[in-house]
Write a structure and sequence with these properties.
Length: 144
Amino acid sequence: MKWSRIISLGFGIGVFLNLVGILGNGVLLRQAWADAIPVRPAQAMTGAMSTAVSLSSDFVFGLALVWLYAAMLPRFGATFATGARAALVIWILGVAVPYVGIVRIGWLPAGITVATALVALVGFVPAVWLTVRFYPATSSAEAG
C-alpha cells in the first residue's frame, strides 16, 4: 500500500464528501433539518467545535474508503466495482447503521435520516470514481 497516496487522496476525498454534505444537507435539506430539530437541546454542541466534529467524519470516510480500496486491490482488481464495494462497506458501517440507532432512540425522524443517508450514498459514487482514478494500481509485489 502507498500510505502517502492513501493519506493525500483520502484527505481530498474527505474534502469532496464535505462539499457534497454541505450542498445536500445545508442547501437541499436545510428546511427538512430545521423542521426535524425545532429546538436545540441545552447540551448540544454548537459553534466551531460542532462544525469541526461534523466535518471530521467525512475526512475519516475518505481515508477509510481509499485505505479499504487499496487493501481490496490485490483480490478484486483496480475497478469501479472494487471501489463501490469499499464505499458500500464504509457507508453501511459509518452512515446507515448509526442512523438506524439515531432513529430508533428518537433523536431524529426517519425522513431526514433517510434523506441525508441518501445524500451520503450519492456522494460516494463520484468519490469512488476519484479513488479508482487517482489511486495507482500496483502489482502484488509492490503492494507489500
